[in-house]
Write a structure and sequence with these properties.
Length: about 325
């Protein structure tokens, strides 16, 4: 039987990642689940500022909040100094005027209002009133952003660093491991695996990418409290059949994994994406067992050992 016909049952339509390229491309999906795609013509940051801030990593988001607070108060402090600090009653004569205006601005912006300094005159009072209004709006927006960041369901599923090809039962098999890093238990966990292989079309000199849906020995579990080794048997129907490690890498093989599970913490379905490519393919090794029972009969799971390998004897 022709090899291509054998693989026909596993062929998959383009999952949205493209099939033809003028030259070889890097991996499409990064290990963290982000796409290795440069998008041109998308909505710019200022037009989609909310999504930009919600997606910003934690320390940059914190820097943005602190920086915005300082910038706003420096701006209003400069206005008070321009109007004249003599219109701010109660400033300590031994204190720098701009510093005093900055602290008064911070108290007004946050509506704390200690009362040590008070605006005098219509113009200064109007600026203080506008600043208090801006402060209320700013803190409402900041509260919404913080809630939006913390309320989003997320997963902490860790993947083994390598995907390996190793003997399994009477055949070779493709394997990788996953584990939930949180104490919560994921329920009704489903795993989808797609394989991408690239060949050069001699007629068009284009790189053609073919996708295959890889069946797993077990792709669904009701409970997911321990590590889970996902296994695809490489029999004569598998697109990886008879391919050496160098041939797999030469075909720019990339494994796309999507995990869907119900998280009891959020009471929502969560999704995790991952990819294996390039140097992450390995053979001649097997995974070490990273859980065992202690003297009391309790199962001890070492999450940090999920990627540990040992050479086949």
């Amino acid at each position: 039987m022709d090899k291509q016909r054998k693989y026909k049952q596993y062929e998959s339509q383009d999952p949205g990642l493209g099939t033809a390229y003028q030259k070889s491309v890097k991996r499409i999906l990064n290990e963290d689940g982000s796409y290795n795609i440069k998008r041109v013509g998308t909505i710019r940051m200022l037009k989609d500022f909310y999504k930009f801030l919600v997606d910003l990593n934690a320390w940059k988001f914190g820097f943005f909040l602190v920086g915005s607070f300082l910038a706003a108060n420096l701006f209003f402090a400069a206005i008070y100094c321009w109007i004249g600090t003599e219109h701010l009653h109660g400033i300590n004569p031994n204190q720098n005027e701009f510093v005093a205006a900055f602290y008064f601005s911070a108290q007004t912006f946050t509506t704390v209002g200690y009362g040590a300094i008070a605006p005098v005159g219509n113009l200064t009072s109007f600026v203080a009133a506008m600043e208090a209004f801006v402060g209320l709006i700013a803190f409402a927006i900041a509260t919404g952003l913080i809630y939006g960041r913390f309320s989003r369901p997320s997963t902490k599923i860790a993947f083994s660093h390598n995907v390996i090809i190793t003997p399994h039962k009477d055949n070779m098999a493709l394997m990788f491991k996953i584990v939930n890093q949180r104490n919560s238990v994921l329920l009704n966990t489903k795993v989808h695996v797609n394989l991408s292989l690239v060949d050069e079309d001699s007629e068009s000199n284009m790189m053609k990418r073919q996708y295959y849906s890889l069946p797993l020995e077990v792709d669904f579990v009701r409970y997911f409290p321990l590590t889970w080794t996902l296994v695809h048997s490489i029999n004569d129907d598998s697109p990886l059949y008879d391919l050496t490690l160098s041939e797999i890498r030469g075909k720019l093989a990339e494994l796309f994994i999507i995990i869907e599970a119900f998280d009891e913490t959020y009471s929502q379905t969560v999704i995790r994406k991952h990819s294996y490519a390039e140097h992450q393919w390995a053979t001649g090794v097997k995974f070490k067992k990273n859980f065992s029972a202690d003297e009391s009969g309790t199962i001890v799971l070492n999450i940090n050992e999920i990627s540990d390998l040992e050479v086949l004897s």
